[in-house]
Amino acid sequence: MFGLIGHLTSLDHAKAVARRLGFDEYADQGLEFWCSAPPQIVDEITVKSLTGSEIKGLYVESCFLPEMLAGNRFKTAIRKILNAMAHAQKHGIDITALGGFSSIIFENFNLAQLLQVRNIQLDIQRFTTGNTHTAYIIVRQIEEASRKFGIDLAKAVITVCGASGDIGSAVCRWLTANTDFRELLLVARNQEKLHNLRSQLGRGKVTDLAHALPLSDIIVWVASMAKGMAINVNQLKRPCILIDGGYPKNMENTISADGIYVINGGIVEHSLDIDWKIMDIVNMAAPARHLFACFAESMLLEFEGWHTNFSWGRNQITVDKMQQIGTVSIKHGFRPLIG
Amino acid sequence: MTPELDYQSPSYCDAYSRINAIVIEGEREAHDNYLTLGEMLPELQGDFAKLAKMEDKHKKGFIACGKNLNVEPDMQFAQLFFAQLHGNFQKAAQAGDVVTCLLIQSLLIECFAIAAYNIYIPVADPFARKITEGVVKDEYLHLNYGEEWLKQHFTQSKSQLEQANRQNLPLIWKMLNQVEQDAKTLGMEKEALVEDFMIQYGESLGKIGFNTREIMKMSAMGLVPA
Fold first, then answer.
1. Domain match, A273 and A127 both
2. Looking at CB atoms within 10 Å, which of A133, A224, B156, B178 has the fewest?
3. Closest by CA position to B180, among listed B4, B19, B10, B6
4. What is the four-CA torsion angle of A294, A296, A300, A306, rounded to 10 degrees?
5. Beta strands across the sheet bearing A95-98
6. The dihedral sign for the CA sequence B62, B64, B69, B74
7. Which residues on A lie below 8 Å from B134 (Cβ)?
8. Do the Cβ atoms of B199 and A38 come within 8 Å?
């Protein structure tokens, strides 16, 4: 059985979802209540592969909200993730993806040191960040979107915002290894990590967002931010492809202008309908078929019987592993969403 | 992540005098409650007597914890603290209401004890940590005993469990609020206690036979405004 640990994007989102699911006890409550709310299994899932095999899974809502990080409630955030992981393990889930902030919290707060949760010893082999598949899907989105919207990659300037992160660095590694492009601009808050990445890649230019935006033909957003930032469309080149893989989205505002193409980053489309309700809740355009690539990774690992923490640690995603997960992604019927 | 605690400081000892007393009184009442349950269900009297004996052992362990820190437990505070819940148990026992008695002792008190002990262990002094680690293992067994009985009698007990939950869970939140500051002095956060309780209680209700929707409703009963 596979599992997904997820969370909602804000307190308002959480209240609306609780109301929609009929959990009125949760719908009217403020942040304090969510800080004490236990993890819940809120969906049972059946997924079919193009190969014909069928798997079952559970969705665990951690009750974590990004406001907890924004308000410096780090202990609360840590507890939410550890409790959700213990909940998944207790329910016998073989491989669980840590969606959204879950894996970021695990890594940033070094939760590998805190694996004893009450009477449960967490087995990290049962968890995956899902970031390898997300990174793979984003690079495929770059390739396919550039074809679709008439941008010649060989002449393109690509900016990766959040380049020093787990997904961002993997995207950069893939691009430098496999893609012919003109320039790669590396943007992130942590300059030291960014310069280290630049040394490892042997290509790319460290810069800041203000300089990068007007130069870029393609911008990949994979920064971890509790709240998105406003983008001024007038700063952007035409045409320009924006691939936003943040959760919550890195770009706060909806951008709609001629020659600007916004792609829902890190999202896959499955070839067959999935029997679940949770993607409706996170406002996917086609909830039966669209899902986060990180969640799809736990499905792929279950389909293949790879019950192991395929994506783990920080900045350890290799191009070979991206290729490996990409091959089974295609085999089971997933493809990058271009929209 | 855990702030350094000075187990000998006056503020720690003052808070400990109440928390330690609550734990001692809780174990004492658990002992008595299990003996009462044994009288109500004579075919299980032997089992309940064993549980009662274990609670008595726990009580002695926690008395030793107080002595170890040279703290005099405030037993008067603890008796008042439990008075209402104790009264509800007694009332149910007199009415022969086994379901309510089991909900109060085997579910609410045991789940709360498990949550509190698990949160306490990482911040306890070394002596109390060892004692509490032993106790919490026993409490899981006690919880399981109540769960099993209620699971076997779920259909006929369901509405009584819901009613008993409605009457008694709000008391648990009230009791928690009363000692929020003392618990904090001992390094235990209220929101962590509430969350751990809800996890444990929800799991127990699930084992007994309640579905997710019912569990969410029941375990949040009376929490806001807490």
1. yes
2. B156
3. B19
4. 40
5. A40-48, A54-61, A2-6, A95-98, A127-128
6. positive
7. none
8. yes
pLDDT band at B34 (very low <50, low <70, confident <90, very high): very high
Strand partners, A116: A121
Domain assignment of residue A67, yes or no? yes
Q: What is the ipTM of this complex?
A: 0.89
Is it true that the peptide bond before B225 is cis, omega within 30 degrees of 0? yes
Domain hosting A208: range is 135-267
Per-residue pLDDT at A233 exceeds 50: yes
Tokens 């148990």 correspond to B89
Q: What percent of chain B has pLDDT over 90?
A: 92
Chain B residues whose CB is inside 8 A of the A33 CB are: 223-224
Q: A227 with A276, same domain? A: no
Q: Which helix (H) or strand (E) holds A270?
A: strand A267-270
Nearest by Cα to A291 from A133, A122, A63: A133
- Does the structure show a pLDDT above 90 at B6? yes
Provide the pLDDT confidence category of residue A85 given band limits of 50, 70 and 90: very high
Q: Are residues A160 and A110 in the same domain?
A: no
Q: What does the pLDDT look like over B116-133, one tens digit per residue?
A: 999 999 999 999 999 999
How far is residue A52 from each of residues A2, A95, A145, A302, A303, measured CA to CA in Å? 17, 20, 29, 14, 10
- Quote the tokens at residue B104: 């109060």
> By the 8 A CB rule, do A141 and A336 touch?
yes
Q: Is pLDDT of B1 > 90?
A: no
| A250 and A307 within one domain | no
Mean pLDDT, range A232-251, rounded to an integer: 92
Assign residue A126 a region (left: φ > 0; alpha: ψ between -120 and 50; beta: otherwise).
Answer: alpha
Residue A206 touches partner B, C-beta closer than 8 Å: no
* CB-based contact, A87 to chain B, within 8 Å: yes
Q: Is the pLDDT of residue A163 over 80?
A: yes
Using 50, 70 and 90 to split pLDDT, how confident is the model at B226?
very low
Let me know whether A274 and A126 are in one domain.
Answer: yes
pLDDT of residue B3: 58
Half-sphere exposure of B179 (CA within 13 A, CB side): 28
d(CA A250, CA A300): 27
Percent of chain B whose pLDDT exceeds 70: 98
| B220 close to A (CB below 8 A) | yes
